[in-house]
Amino acid sequence: MSTVIDNPAAHRFELPIEGSDGEIAAAYYRMEDGRLILTHTDVPYRFTGQGVGSRLARGVFDTIRARGDKVVLRCSFMGAYYARHPQYSDIVVG
User: Fold this and answer.
1) How far apart are CA 7 and CA 28, in angstroms?
2) What are the sequence ranges of the domains in the chain?
């Protein structure tokens, strides 16, 4: 299983999609007042409905938690994931 990586130069977290030709799912962010603001999630269309977005979200939230950061959700996909996974309430601040 692929691991989510932070690509700060591109302002996004990336999840390489196994079995594809180098495609990735990505969660875009910006930093503001010391907090990470998740703004948009992108999963290639042909991989929608296969759990790729959920694996990306779990990896993003786990990475943020491991770094001791806080996150603000401005992305509807990440907000919906959080609504189903309230165990991340310790890192979500908005």
Assistant:
1) 10
2) 5-88
pLDDT in tens, 3-52: 999 999 999 999 999 888 899 999 999 999 989 999 999 999 999 999 99
CATH class of this structure's domain 5-88:
alpha beta
Could you write out the DSSP letters of every residue in the chain?
Answer: ----EEEGGGTEEEEE-TTSSS-EEEEEEEEETTEEEEEEEE--GGGTTTTHHHHHHHHHHHHHHHHT--EEE--HHHHHHHHH-GGGTTTB--
